[in-house]
Each structure stands twice: as C-alpha cells, then as structure tokens.
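SUBJECT: A protein chain and its fold
Encoding: whole-number codes for local backbone shapes
RECORD BEGINS BELOW THIS LINE
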Amino acid sequence: MNSTSDSHALSIALVGSGGAGVVTAGNLLLEAARADGSFGLMRRSAGPQIRGGESAALLHFAAAPVECAGDYYQLVVAFDWLHAQRFVEEIPLTAASCVLHDPAGGDVPEPIARTGARLVPIEMHAPATEIGCGRANMIALGLVSAITGIKTETLTEMVNRSLSAKGESMVMGARACLERGAALGRSLDIDLPIPVDPDGADGRWMISGNEACGLGALKGGVRFVAGYPITPASEMLEWLAPRLAGTGGCLIQAEDELASVNMILGASYGGVPAMTVTSGPGLALMTEGIGLAVASETPIVVIDVMRGGPSTGIPTKSEQTDLNIALYGMHGEAPHVVVAPVSIADCAFTAQWAVNLAESLQTAVIVLSDQLLAQSRTVTHRPPDIDFITRRVTAQRRDEAYRRYALSGDEVSAMAIPGSAGLSYTADGLEHDERGTPSTGAEDHLRQLDKRSSKLTGFDYGDHWATVEGDGEVAVVTWGSCTAAVREAIRRAGAAGLPVRLIALRLLAPLRTKQLSQALAGVNRVLVVEQTFSRQFYHYLRSRFDLPGRTECLARPGPLPLSPGEIADCLLAGTAR
C-alpha cells in the first residue's frame, strides 16, 4: 500500500562533494524562499571528512510550516557525484523527478539512473570558470531560482548579505553566476514553483535546532557553559559563545568532557545556572559527574545531541540510541530528569524548560536532541514566549544549624551560596545526613534516596510532559525527531479514513504513567515509533507501563530517518516490522 505524498510541497536536493558550497547554496535558497513567503526545512547530509567527502542540502518547501521530509524529491541538482553511493539512499526519486547534473562531475550513479527520473545534463563548472571568482554552486543556485520562481532580486540580496565579508569581487562574481545560472534555467522546460503563503513572511523565524536550544538555555537563565567540541553539537557552542558574553555570562572550551561537567558543577554550586553540550561519546564520559550532581543535589543541564553509535559511530547522521544511557547510565540509584524536544522550534522551549526543572528540582536534567533536529534549519512561525518562574530555593541565615539536605514537604531543600555566613555544609558525592555530614548509616541512605526520588516523581510538570493531538482508537507513541514524520503520517491516515492519536513524549523520565494512561483512554491499538535498532523506547515504555490493546513497534536505526509514507502505510495496513 502506498500512501499519497503531499502534492502541495516541493522537495529539492543539492548534492556535491564537501567544500563545493552545497550547504551555502542551500542556506541561501532557504532564506530567499522565506523572504518570498514560503515555509521551509533544510536538512544536511555529510560524511565525517572536513573536505572532499559527500555533501547534500535536502530542502523542502510549502505554504505552511514544514517539519519533515517528503517521500521523494522532485528536483535534484548535482554539482558532482563524488562518493554519491554514501547518500543516494537518502534521496528517494521517482519517474516524476528531475535530475540536473554536470557531465564534468562524473557519470550519473546507477541507483539514480534506474529510478526512471528525468536526467538533464547541464554545465555548471565550465560557465563558473569564465567568471571572475565564479563558483558552480552559484550557477546551480541561479538554475534553481529560475525553475522554482524565486525572485532574482531576493536571491541577490541574500548573496550580498551573506558574502559581503569576503569582498566586493566575491559578491560580484556570485551575482554574475546567479544571472548566468538563471538564464540557463529559463532555457529548460522545467517548472517547479515553490509554494508561497499569501500572508507573507512577517514574524517568521529561520533557525536550527542547535541555535534554538542555545536560545532556550539563555532564556532559562544559563550564564555559564563549558563544553568540548563534538559533532553534531559544536555549532551550539559556537552560537552561544558571543551571546553569553553579551549577557555577562561565560563559555569555556574545556580540555575534555570530564572537565566540562565538573566545571558546570562548580559554577552551579556557586549559584550560577550552568550547562554543558555534548554528543553520545561525551555523555558516556560525563556520567560520573552527572551522578555527583544527583547526589549533591546541584542543578545542571546536559544537552546531548545524539548521533549514530556506538563508539565514534556515524558522527554526522541522526539516531535516538542514547536513550538507554540517558535513562540508566549512572551507577547506583541516581534519579534525574530526561527531556526531549519534539521539533526544531520546540528545542527552544524544551531547553528553557530544562533549565527551569534543573534549578527548581536541584538535580541533573539531560536534554536529548539529535543530529536531525540540531543541524536542520527551518522557516517557521515565531513560537510564543513562555516566562517560566525559574527559582532556585536558596538558604537564608537562621539561628538553628543549617540542614542542607533537610527532609521537607516537597523534598527540595534550601541551597546555600558558598561563603554565606552560618550556612556552611559538606558538599561532595558521599552519602550524607540532613546536615551534609558523610554517613554510612542505612537510615540516612534510605531517607536521602527517597528524598532525591520523591522530589522528581511528586513534581507537577503540567501539560508539558507530552504533545497530545487527535482522537481515535489507534494511537502512535513517539518522541524526539520522529514526531514530525509521525504527525504527517497521521494526517495522511486521517485523510484515508483512519483517525489516529499522536502522543509525543517531551518528558521521558520520570515517566508520567497516570497522564499517559489518560491520553491512551479508549485506544485499542498502539504503534510505537522510534529510530533505534533494539527498540529502546518500546522496551522502556513496556517496562514501566501496560500499553493498551495490540502494541506494535516501528523501529529502525539511522542514518535513514523514518518517512511519513512508511509510517502511514504501517498504520493503514495494521502491521509493523
């Protein structure tokens, strides 16, 4: 069964070798489409090489917000086919697709040719060499502008803004290439207009998930960040550095991930909301430090931008396989909070919420983003501002002896700022009594274990625990970047006569079983969707909760994301792999 794709969207792939300017052209195209009134999404596909490997900018445009890829690409523009075998699976084509390729870039790969797509040879490198400071990516951009109807003046303005720092000769060369490419495009019998929203582009954001996470952290009050560069999280550190300085905060590039987590523990202990940013290998190194944050009840935020694993794995591709280490990775009983954004725009909200939770609950909060969310850019409506009241309960001097880990009603005890008169206490990783004095006593251990757990399970997380949409006797339960494809699949299933509920968890731990039960009331079939090999999310849910009716799981590891079509097919056929 083949579900119908969205006929009101346009998908374009720009492909070439690393360093050919594929991503630059994609960003300019996305920005120009936004200015002309379109919504869009750009995903990146690249190898681990700095230059010379494969590269692709995968773009999707519509007159309404775009959250995920379509089922196939209508237009492919190939500067060259270097290492194309590494990414062709990510660019599904049909006989209705069109492939523009430069003969100088090599033969069309056999997997591309056998799709039946229309192959159109057209020179891009040769005309670029005839222009001073000319680049083939600007020729390609001109081609696409003519085919899609993007205004030449809009694209020229974007080029002027983007390349002005590189000098007048570079700008003039790029503009000449745009004009040459547009002339070539007009000579082709190809018309694929980008859908445009008649209301225009006012008030829209163009932002990546990494940038959105950084913004949310700043809005939440983070003023100290320590981190070690790692793909695909490094761009968040780069984005945060100057903006933290502008708020009076500080970002430090540590010597490794061990130092990073210990630095933010020190900053938070001193009263400054603090965060680190990493990916799976770094999170593995940080687990002891995160356990110290739990034991000492020191608030920290750790953003893990997941990638394919294990070990070095696939650094530039997306996967959700850090779920288990985020949930269970600490030694001993170390209850903490795990949250995950459900879209690129939601990265801002979830990161801000994570800071609020860490400070309010005095614990470690792990945010699970992933490469697909983090390195994709979207044109979307500006999300509403939410003003969390983020307050750390701080101790005030009193006559009686200060009890840092007092057993209070909500189990969140007042935390003293170091150096405050009369409020000294022992802060380390040893088990302790209410004063903070190290203790090996069974009663002290049990009381503090219960304190650290109860403050998380008894907290009111409100409606933020999940995104719940729709109704029906069938439900899809998912999380993270899978949410976008699931939402589109549910729309298609509804159009085919099958109403389906969406439950996308934002709060993964502690699991809100009561709220999940209410959201699933009346459901007789549940489909769990995730991007893992071993069905980590499915097994986690089953270990904590009795899912109603017939339960299935659609799971696949990276690097290929699940498509709306295959999820919709699974819903309509009533089976899952």
About this structure: The longest helix spans residues 168-186. Residues 464-573 form a domain with the Rossmann fold fold (CATH 3.40.50.920).
